Amino acid sequence: MTGSDLSTDPTAPALPTWALWLMIMALFCLVVALSASLVESLAGGTLPTVLRSGGTSFLAAATLCFGTLQAVRELRKRR
Questions:
Q1: Residues 9-64 pLDDT 10s
Q2: Which of 6, 33, 38, 72 could form a disulfide with 58 if both were Cys (CB 3.0 to 4.6 A apart)?
Q3: Which one-letter DSSP state was computed for residue 2?
């Protein structure tokens, strides 16, 4: 099998697609966390509050991303 045969093979695993989505979600969550940390820092927050706001916003964004992903998967099953 060549590389082009693998892309058309219906039994090929969808791992590259999942890896890509996971990487996109992680980068999105990182941008959200850095933005929240920057806003907190510019507001005059101390280091612990900046870290706490960044971590909290990262976890909140990750929860929303994984929740959206699960909802899309469930809606696709119903078709």
A1: 566 555 678 888 899 999 999 999 999 999 999 999 999 999 999 999 999 999 99
A2: 33
A3: -
8 Å CB contact between 61 and 28: yes
Residues 6+ apart with CB under 8 A from 36: 53, 54, 56, 57
Q: Is 57 exposed, middle or buried (0-12, 13-18, 19+ CB in 10 A)?
A: buried
The DSSP line for 6-69 is HHH-TTS--HHHHHHHHHHHHHHHHHHHHHHHHHHHHTT--HHHHHHHHHHHHHHHHHHHHHHH
